[in-house]
Structure formats: structure tokens, C-alpha cells
């Protein structure tokens, strides 16, 4: 099975080399979507064995995921793994995602809420609100709708449509998978929080903006 990791990255020169080094043993190829970074993210990614696809300007997480999906299709991937470039995820957990795909899952969500290991309480509250929004707006329930650590079968990543550019993509992916009646399973993951990774998360106002975009998406569906 050809497993391709898709890693969206925006100004991640501090962490991208370590993320790639730890990811490499568990995948066939690594695609870094350089989302308009102004630092050495792209250069460092290339030096560490990644395929780099770059946006000329910062377009947002959703756009980066969409570009990653398209690149994985061109690379003829059998399964796709997304993980963050800030070091928040442990690549050694990738095999449990692959196992779930091999056992018939179309979409696998790495859930921090199943273990809650190291997850700050305010992140848990924000996550629960995100989960409830995804449920009420789209009828899809998972315990960690905002997780960036996910896996998709070939059918899923070649069929799911990424239409949003921003952080709302996390809920959009689940909503579209649910609408297409794909099998969605969750596996417990450990979240690795540092001052750096915490600084990359959504603020209250960004979270509110994301919610408003999801409401608009639901209205226009």
C-alpha cells in the first residue's frame, strides 16, 4: 500500500525537519504543502526528503488540504495521512490509522478526546463546541472534529470535495464524508503541546469566524 503523508505548512521552519524525520519511517512519500511561507519551510522540507507543493500566497488550511489531496492523486496514493507541521502529532501512531483503513474505514480521525492526554482544558472546551457545531449543522458526530491527524482511503480522498480555504475545512471533511456515507472511525492519539504548537491554534475570534463560515456553508448546501 502506497501511503502518502500530506503536511500543510505555513512558516514552520522551526519544526518541519523534525516532523519529516519522524514521519518518514511510516509512509511511502511525504508531501509538504508550503502555504505561502515567508521563511525557509520549503527549502528545509526539500532537504529532508519531502515533495514540496507551494502556494504563492498564504491561502489557508483548507486550500492547503485541497492541494495536498490533488497532489496525492497525481502520486497515485492508496491512502493519505494528514498531520500538522508544528510537531503536535506523533507520527509513530500512523500505523493505527493505516490498520483502520486496511480494515475497511474510509476516513480515520485521530481523537485527542479519547485519551485527553496533555490536552489543555480550554482546548477540550473549544473542541466540544466544534463537535456540537458539526453535529447540529451537518448531522455528523465525532469526538474530535478539529483534529488535524487523519487518514483517508483512496476512495475518500479522491471523492471528498474541499471547497473551503480556512480552518472550517476540518468540519467540512467530516460533513462531506458523512453525506457520502463513508465509514468514519476514530482512533485515540496523544496530543503533544508545546508553547510553539499552542501559539498555532485557533483563537476565540478565529473560532467564531470559523463557526460563522460553517453556518453559511450549511445554509448554501
Q: Rg from C-alpha positions?
A: 16 Å
Q: Distance between the terminal alpha carbons, to the nearest Å?
A: 35 Å
The assigned structural class equals: alpha/beta
Strand content: 15-25%
Gross geometry:
globular
Biggest sheet: strand arrangement: 3-2-1-4-6-5-7
CATH architect. name: Alpha-Beta Complex
- Helix percent reads 40-55%
What is the CATH homologous superfamily assignment? Answer: Spore Coat Polysaccharide Biosynthesis Protein SpsA, Chain A
> Could you give the order of the helices and strands?
EHEHEHEHEHEHHEHH
Short structural description:
The chain is α/β, with parallel strands linked by helices and 221 residues long.
Task: Give an overview of the whole structure.
The structure is a single chain. With 221 residues, the chain is α/β, with parallel strands linked by helices. The protein has helices at residues 16-23, 41-47, 61-74, 94-102, 121-138, 154-159, 169-179, 195-199, 204-220, and strands at 3-9, 29-35, 51-55, 79-82, 107-111, 150-153, 184-188. The protein has a seven-stranded mixed β-sheet, with helices on both faces. Helix 2 links the parallel strand 2 and strand 3 (51-55). Helix 5 (121-138) packs parallel to helix 7 (169-179) and helix 5 packs parallel to helix 9 (204-220). The chain is globular.
Question: What's the SSE blueprint?
Answer:
Blueprint: E1 3-9, H1 16-23, E2 29-35, H2 41-47, E3 51-55, H3 61-74, E4 79-82, H4 94-102, E5 107-111, H5 121-138, E6 150-153, H6 154-159, H7 169-179, E7 184-188, H8 195-199, H9 204-220
Parallel strand pairs: 1-2, 1-4, 2-3, 5-7
Antiparallel strand pairs: 4-6, 5-6
Amino acid at each position: 500500500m502506497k501511503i502518502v503523508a500530506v503536511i500543510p505548512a505555513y512558516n514552520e521552519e522551526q519544526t518541519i525537519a523534525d516532523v519529516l524525520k519522524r514521519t518518514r519511517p511510516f509512509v511511502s512519500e511525504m508531501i509538504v504543502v508550503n502555504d505561502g511561507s515567508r521563511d525557509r519551510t520549503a527549502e528545509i522540507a526539500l532537504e529532508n526528503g519531502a515533495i514540496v507543493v507551494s502556494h504563492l500566497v498564504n491561502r489557508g488550511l483548507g486550500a492547503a488540504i485541497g492541494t495536498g489531496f490533488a497532489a496525492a492523486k497525481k502520486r497515485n496514493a492508496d491512502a493519505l495521512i494528514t498531520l500538522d507541521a508544528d510537531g503536535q502529532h506523533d507520527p509513530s501512531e500512523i500505523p493505527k490509522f493505516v490498520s483502520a483503513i486496511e480494515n475497511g474505514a474510509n476516513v480515520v480521525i485521530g481523537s485527542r478526546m479519547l485519551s485527553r492526554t496533555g490536552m489543555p482544558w480550554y482546548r477540550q472546551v473549544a473542541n466540544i463546541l466544534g463537535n456540537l457545531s458539526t453535529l447540529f449543522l451537518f448531522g455528523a458526530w465525532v469526538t474530535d472534529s478539529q483534529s488535524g491527524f487523519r487518514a483517508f482511503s483512496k476512495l475518500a480522498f479522491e471523492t471528498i470535495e474541499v471547497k473551503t480555504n480556512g480552518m472550517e475545512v476540518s468540519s467540512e471533511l467530516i460533513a462531506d464524508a458523512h453525506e457520502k456515507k463513508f465509514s468514519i472511525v476514530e482512533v485515540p492519539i496523544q496530543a503533544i503541546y508545546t508553547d510553539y504548537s499552542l501559539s498555532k491554534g485557533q483563537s476565540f475570534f478565529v473560532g467564531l469566524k470559523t463557526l460563522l463560515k460553517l453556518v453559511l456553508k450549511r445554509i448554501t448546501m
